[in-house]
Design brief:
The protein has helices at 2-41, 56-80, 84-115, 120-123, 125-155, 165-194. The protein contains six helices and no strands. It starts with a helix and ends with a helix. It is an all-alpha fold. It has a single domain, classed as Four Helix Bundle (Hemerythrin (Met), subunit A). Helices cover 83% and strands 0% of the residues. The protein is globular and about 50 Å long.
Amino acid sequence: MVEKQIALHSPRESHFAVRFFVTTVALFALAGTLAWLLTLLGEAATAQNGDLYLPFPFWISTATLAVGSWSLQRALRAVQVEKQQKFRRSLLIGLTTGTLFVAVQSYALWVLLNEHAEGEAATGATVFVFVAALLHGMHFTVALLFLVWITLQAFADRYDHEYYWGVIVCTFFWHALGIVWLMIYGAFAIVAWKL
């Protein structure tokens, strides 16, 4: 009987792995396409007199990060009270904003490199912000993969009011990345203000 149960679970798990892979590739392909379109459509505003400033796309990516954080907190509250439809809808909002964050953040890094290439030798601040934002983006990629996993599990009825540990970890990981991003912003604001 144990062998029969193992045999029954293997196809299910392999189907889940395929769904995870396809969903992940689709989301990152969409984010990459959006970032590429932004680079084609967006004209980078030039810095006035070599002033150091944070490009506007970083503000947009910050807003998407905040909306994603809100939606994951909403999903956590919904699963705790067994509101499955609201829970899943909130996770989908989180996936959408996460994908937008990757797209806009990629474009913002491109803008940062194009706008601040000349002033970087004098201050080094551009390099700091670029590396910090890039490292943050790499960690955010892990968070988005985690969110894809949680969302697919939610649609497979894995979570309820008694078991939602993965949702808790995913939500607080996202919140922690938001706090780190605000710290990067703060450091950049201090450097720009001192110049």
